Structures are given as C-alpha cells and as structure tokens.
Amino acid sequence: MDIQDVLNCVFSAWYPKFKDITIKSYILPLPKEFLDYLQADGVVLPEQSVAASGKHDEDDIEGEELDVDWDSADSSETKMPSFPEFESLMKKIIKNLGGSVFPKLNWSAPRDATWISFDKTLRCTCPSDVYLLLKSSEFITHDLTQPFLHCKDCANGSNVTVQYELILRKWQNLASGMEFRCFVRNGNLTAICQRNHTEYYEFITKMKEEIVSDIKAFFYHMVAGKFPSKNYVFDVYRRDKGKLLLIDFNPFGAVTDGLLFTWDELEGLRGDGQEDQQRNDQSEGSTSVTSSVETSNTQEPVFRFVEHPEGVQPHPYSSFGIPEDIKDLTSGEDPYKMMDLLNLKIQQMGRQDSCDEEGD
Questions:
Q1: Claim to verify: residue 207 and residue 290 sit in the same structural domain
Q2: Residue 134 — φ and ψ, nearest 5°?
Q3: Do 46 and 82 contact (CB within 8 A), yes or no?
Q4: Torsion of CA 281, 287, 293, 296, to 10 degrees
Q5: What is the mean pLDDT of the chain?
Q6: How do the residues of the chain divide into helix, strand and coil, expressed in percent and rounded to 5?
Q7: 20 to 30 A from 300, CA-CA: which of 2, 125, 212, 284?
Q8: Taking Cα atoms as reference points, which of 9, 11, 14 lies closest to residue 28?
C-alpha cells in the first residue's frame, strides 16, 4: 500500500466517477478553524449548537424556578468555538438530504463513536450531532493525524498536503446483513466478506451463490477498470437480487479491517491466477465458523461469512465506549494503575478494620 493508494480512496477523488451508483452526498471543505477544533482536546460544542439546543418554549418552563445565575459562570471556562457560516451550510445540506445524514471525513466515518449518540447510530439531524460524533471518534483522529501510517512510503507523508473535507451522506436505513466487503488484488476480485461479521444471518447461507454472482457482475461491469489503484477494497450493499449500491472504497492494507480474513491471507490471494493454494488450504482449516466459495483456476472469489450462530463475535467497536482506565486495568497494560487500585483497596480495608475496632 502506497500513499497514492490511500489518496485514491479519498471520498472526493472517487465520488464524481461513481456518484450514479452510490449514496447521494455533499462534500464540504473544512475551514482551518474547524480542523483546529476537531484536533483540540475535550468535547466542547460550538456556540451556535448549544444555543439552538438550549431553546425552550415558554410552556416548557412554566412553573419551573430558574435560579441559575449564568452571568456568574466561571470565567476560566473553555471558550466555545464558533463557525456560523459553516454551520449554516451544514443545516441547508441536511435539509436538502431529507433531514437526516451520516457524516465522514476524507476516509473514515466515526463508527467507533456511535456509543455516544442517542440511537447508537451515525444518523445526524443537526450540526451538533455531527460535532459530537466527529469529536468522539478515534477513527477521525487517525484521518487527521496519521492517514499514511501503514504506507510503504510513509516517510514521504510529510510532503503530501491533504485537503480535509466533511462529507454528509443521505441517511439510509440499511439492513446490516446485506452489506459486504470486497477485496481486489491486481485488478481482480479475490475475496468477499460479510461486512457485519459479528452477527449470524441464516439467509446468507441459502443465498451465497446468488450473492457472489451479483457482486461479481457489479464489480466487473461498474467498478473494474474505473478505480485507479490495482489493489483496493470496496463495500457494497445488496438491496435485492441484481441491485447493488456502492458504499465506499478503502486502501488494500492493514489500515482497513480484514473482518473474517487476515491480511496475510488476503495478500496471498494475488488475483493473477497463481494463488498460493497451500495458503488457501490453511485458511480453510482455521475458520470453522465461516464458509467460502473456493478459489479456482477461474479465480472465483473466496466468500466468507458467519456460518453458525456459535461463530458470532463481540462487536469490534464496543470497547470504544469504555473509559481508558478500565480498559487498562482489565487488559493489564498499565501495571501502575493496577497497583494504585490495590493500594486503594488496602486503605479501604484498613479503614473498615479501624471502624470495626471502634465499634467493639
């Protein structure tokens, strides 16, 4: 994976060419002050959003005593940022797209931040929803700070100027079992995987041949030869038989989740008719919860999905809603925190013993 492969996956680089087969979207270049806001510590919503969300009808507050003296607020409070023009544009776009959107930056959507949203989705109906998701996402931080981390030529990343953009896409109620991740190597479709790999969908087993056939037809008729990289990953949504919707493009490499595949396996499927059959045999033996359509001389893509309910895995984003201290304690990554916890427990036990002695 090279820097150019990552740049080819920037949303604004591929959307104009594929806009007829994907979700309607708007692209907004990010002003510098908004970029600074996204990279600043803490989660402080812009002034306009707070003011809008704080409005109440007189009937709502009738009979309530509002005895808070807002003028006496602590002057050391973090200053609220303000982007009136940018926010006004966002509101117009959200309205044009039917009142609901989901956001992303150049490459990533804040999927790891859904724990903070009201309905645990990426659905946004106002700018403050967008701000909250973007500010709470480690995926977004990666886009802003380390977009070329896994590239072979990452040392040249400092010479690349990235124009960061906010993409607002029309909200779609997509059935999670109908989305698939597809891996392309040397211009050929080599592997397919169910996108939501933490769930079991019985219908996939019954329809696996149809699914593979539809995705192959969609790839070779609508995508192949049009995307500039030879190696890449794309996600599709199968609305119905023969009806597919392009969702996104991603780089072919460790920065993209291989889901039910390892990247060693994916890199072994070279897509040039000379795949390493021994590697394929080994991968079949190591994935008892998945099924596949064998790779053959006709280069049929390997298709993996959760074949049995017993193969269901924990959701990969569930840990993002847990405080870092708790994760460090449970994983043992920070021994000093464990020592502090034990010392605190010993002190509590000592105080309890003292209280018992006094009671006697």
A1: yes
A2: -65, -40
A3: yes
A4: -20
A5: 80
A6: 45, 15, 40
A7: 2
A8: 11
**In sequence order, what DSSP letters do the residues of 289-309 get, joined into one string?**
TB--PPP-TT-PPEEE-B-SG
Query: Could you tell me the two tokens for 48?
Result: 């306009």
Cα–Cα dist 275/282, whole Å: 13
Q: Is 89 helix (H, G, I), strand (E, B) or coil?
A: helix
Would you state the pLDDT for residue 343? Answer: 67
Question: How would residue 48 be classed by pLDDT, with cut points 50, 70 and 90?
Answer: low
Question: What does the alpha-carbon distance between residue 345 and residue 355 come to, in Å, rounded to a whole number?
Answer: 15
Contacts of 237 (CB under 8 A, 6+ apart): 172, 174, 178, 179, 180, 244, 245, 247
User: Both 150 and 192 in a single domain?
Assistant: no
User: Tokens in use for 245?
Assistant: 């919707």
Structure tokens at 112: 């790891």
Q: pLDDT digit string (tens) for 212-231?
A: 999 999 999 999 999 999 99
User: What's phi and psi for 267, nearest 5 deg?
Assistant: -75, -20
Structure tokens at 282: 């080994």
Q: With the CA atoms of 69, 75, 79 and 82 taken in that order, what torsion angle do they form, in degrees rounded to the nearest 10? A: 50
Closest CA to 141 of 46, 45, 94, 149: 149
